[in-house]
Structure formats: structure tokens, C-alpha cells
Amino acid sequence: ALNGLASDGGLFIPQEIPQFSPSVRSSLGTMNFIELAFETIRPYVHEDIPDSVLGDMVESAFNFPAPLVPVDDRFVLELFHGPTAAFKDFGARFMARSFAYLRRNEDRELHILVATSGDTGGAVADGFFGVEGIAVTVLYPKGRVSPLQERQIAGLGGNVSAIAVEGSFDDCQRLVKSAFVHPELSRRLNLSSANSINISRLVPQSVYYVAASALAKSGRYSQDGKATPRMRGTGEGQRAVRDGRLGKDVLFCVPSGNFGNLTAGLYAQAMGAPIAGFIAATNINKTVPEYLASGVYQPRPSVATISNAMDVGAPSNFERMTAHWSYEELRKNIHGFWVDDEKTKETIARVFDTSGYVLDPHGAVGWTAVDQWLAAKEDPAHPFAGFSGPVAVLGTAHPAKFAETVEPLVGPVPVPPSLAEAMGRTVQSVTIRADVEALVETLLTLRS
């Protein structure tokens, strides 16, 4: 975890994915979120983090809800109630606490280098801000994140620095990977990563899959979820269809970019969570949906979209997926769909009109992918033709983070207090070209 990447630039993966014990598996539906978090993470860390310390970590890190909210004929798993209003808070907050513990006897400063397409940078900056002995530098594509995201990334100061890269997220990610194998940097700086290339970011994200699937399997969902604004009642017919699916394994639709979130779901499923399968929903950066359809993996430069956190043409976590599972296994378990910007906007407006629920652009990509999946499974030959369980779309970010896209379609969206505070920050960043030597020079200057 502290190294982030292997010395050859490869990703760390579990030697084998641990399994829930029979007693834990039979009790999943009776545990609360903190108890589920403990049981999910413990098998990965029990040799390094005592149970008492781990218990305190999960209680402190996951101090906000992740409600499974009913909307129309499906559910939305809302993952945006943390301090930066994005699902990345789950991984970043646990990572910050685990790093601080694992380094408790270290004198040399740890330097975390992270690339972001939008939400990761803000979550990592917030999670590690003020943590003693750890410095953070976030690389983000200049002009390709929202104004709010940029203030979350580059507005804290202190032990958090920001670099705006003249290029794409893929360029940022390439620079981070290059930094880890650069001899001068490895000698001068004690580097680690907080991207989903770091396995310690993924494992805590498995928790909400376990919790939501266990809840639905037990025939329940969150009645008290603080859903996004102005959600009206759902029609009786749709409610009956939706609620009639409870008590069965869940199909999760995952808005996907670097595919860390979906990989975390695959780990949860392999551990024994009651998960039927996955829909991988991307924007027009459709590398993985095309792979699932053809068996051919063709990474390419990313294209900018309104769902910018998913603008990834060469997803790093594809390596983890194919290390654990064959193409045939992935194809049967994951159904890939892609959605363009026009359809994304259309879905935001339509869902608000029918239910009053406000989707952000990434959630709208997921919602549209479910629509496409439902149409496709009418074919008797479809692998999930007979599926009758609940479908849950992951709500990965609060719509207020993308007000410039969402508000013209649905009207004003109330802003959570944490986001209102971030909007008042001043951006403090350095701009560089997408070049390794430019990054090296800047990092050594920032951390000298």
C-alpha cells in the first residue's frame, strides 16, 4: 500500500481474494455499515493493523451514509454524502488513516503523487490534508475539470500541492506512473500513490457493494436516504416492480472510467457478497465495453465529455480485472454499454421530469446504460434474460458538483455545505506541459 506501484511499474493485486467465512456470510444482512466495513477490510490487513485499530479507522473514515434510494423501477446507491461529495471519499479517507498508522514510526516524509480526472484529487486532498509526515501532489488535466473540482483539488494549500497538466487525464496518469520508475525521483522523494492503482484505495470501496447488496438481499433499502433534491413519488406500478425484486442478488451498474470502482465490486462479489453481476457504463471513452463485446483491448487517447471523471481511454485497472478473471468470465459477469453527451443530458432531464430525482452526468450515464441493458435482455439469448433481482445504479457524485451541466436541465440544485465552502477557495496550482522531465523539475522544486 505504501509503495503504490511495484518497482517495474506494475500494479499490486491480492495473491488470492479472501472469502467471507460461512458465519460472516450468513450474518451480512444483520450487520450495520461499520461492522460490514470491518469484516470486508480485515482479511486484507489483519497482519499489519490490529483489530482494535482497524475498528477505530472504519468508524472514523466512514462517518457518513451510503443510502440505497428507490427511484422509479430501480435503486440509486448514493455515494456522495462524504466531505467532497463523491464516492472517492470512501477510499481516500480510509487510505489516509491507514497510511498514518503504518508510518507511525517513520521519520522520512512520504510523498503521495496522484492523477485525477476530477473527483479523486479532491477526495485525496481532503483525506490527507494536515496529516503529519505526508505530502500530497495532485496532477489534473488543465481545463478538463469543473471549477468546483479545481477548487477542491488546488484550494487547500498546506501539505497539498496541485499541478495543472496541459493534456488529458491519460497524460496525468502516464506521468504519475513514469515518476515511480524515475531514478532521480525515487532517490530524492519517498513516493506513493493514492490513485486506484494503489490497492489500498480499492479495498475500502468494496465495502459499499457488500453493504448495499446485503441490505437488498434481506428485502430492505434505505428509507431515510438523503436523496438529491425534489424527489417526487414513484408510480405504483414501478414501485411494485422495483420492490418485488428485493430479496435476490443485486445487479450493480457502475459508471466507469479507470475501472477501479468496478474492480472493487468484483472483489466484493468474489468475497461472497450477494451480487448477480455488473453493468459497466462508460461515456464515449468506450475501451472496455468494446473489449467485452469483441475480446480485443484497444486503449486510445481520451476524449473530453461532460462526465469528465470517466474520461479515460487507457484504464489502469483493466490489468487487475484480466489478472484475476479470463475474458469469458468477465464477459459473462459484466455487460458493457456506452453513452454520449447528448443522451446523458436527455436522461438527466427525463428522470427529473418523471421522478423529481436529480442525476449528475456520471449517474445519468449509468441510468442510461441500465435502460440499454433492460432493452437488450429482452432477447432470450441474453445471459441475464431471466434476471428478476434488484438493479442499483451507483450515484458517484452529487449533481451540485456539475451545476453548469445539470442546472440548465432541471433548475437550481441545492449545494451541500462542504461544497459551498470549497467554492470560496482560491486555486493554487502550477501549470506544466505533459512531459516527465517537466514533472520531475516541478516536484523537486515543490518539495525542496
UniProtKB/TrEMBL annotation:
Coiled coil: none annotated. One of its GO terms (molecular function) is pyridoxal phosphate binding. This is Threonine synthase. Its EC number is 4.2.3.1. Residues 2-62 form the Threonine synthase N-terminal domain. Residues 77-373 form the Tryptophan synthase beta chain-like PALP domain. GO terms for cellular component: cytoplasm. Its cofactor is pyridoxal 5'-phosphate. It is an enzyme of class 4 (lyase). One of its GO terms (biological process) is amino acid metabolic process. The lineage of its organism: Bacteria, Pseudomonadati, Spirochaetota, Spirochaetia, Spirochaetales. It comes from the Bacteria. Keywords: Lyase, Pyridoxal phosphate. The keyword rRNA-binding does not apply. InterPro entries: Ser/Thr_deHydtase_PyrdxlP-BS, Thr_synth_N, Thr_synth_N_sf, TrpB-like_PALP, TrpB-like_PALP_sf.
